[in-house]
Amino acid sequence: MNKYLEQLIELSKLDKEIDDFGPRIAKVEKMLKLSLDKERDLKLQAESFQADIADAKLKKAKNEAHLAELSSKLKDLTKKSALVKTAKEIKALQLEEEISKEQCDFANDEINRLDKIIDLKQTNISGLQEKIAEAVKEAEEIKASIDSQIQAIEEERRNVYQSKDELVVQMSQKILTFYQKIRKWAENTTVVPVKKQACYGCFMRMNDKTYASVLKQDDIVTCPHCGRILYKEIAEEAQA
């Protein structure tokens, strides 16, 4: 195989490895993000329940204050009833007393309802606190694992970059410029194999003359359709 072609194949493989590091790290970091999102959502739920409890306690306090006022009013009505003399006054006091008692019943019912809400929300918060503790532990474990994985990936990336630097030093500047020019648009399909007499970059079938040149591998051959650099697969070589 042509020396320059071997270098180009190796360089394209190294560039592909380098480009793959970003998605690999992003995939690993996504695991931690999902765990932290879960922890955040649980905490937001707990904060929402706390706000509901605070609101319910405020409404309960208002109803209790209103109930105290009604109780005081009923006592005053009882005192007044002993002093009134006419039937009209008695009837007016009785009506006012009935309204006050209905308001007392409503206030008591509302206080009971709010107590149930407070108890339910507190129970929900207790359950969430357990889940939050589990989520925090899970996030810490994932972070420790991710730190280890990223460290390994970064070490691997340094080695690949070193291999690429060593290879580039050995390459002809003219060949390297030619490769980089194609890579600007072809990216990781700059150097592609030929399978079944077709370019595996554009998947177009090539003529017999070009195919024969690829099989010989004496020179650098580009696809007549897309311009990518071509090389033969081992299977193609065996068939030839």
From TrEMBL:
Residues 198-230 form the C4-type zinc ribbon domain. Pfam families: Zn_ribbon_9. Gene3D superfamilies: 1.10.287.1490. The keyword Coiled coil applies. It comes from the Bacteria. Signal peptide: none annotated. Residues 60-159 form a coiled coil. Keywords: Coiled coil. This is C4-type zinc ribbon domain-containing protein. It comes from Sulfurospirillum halorespirans DSM 13726.
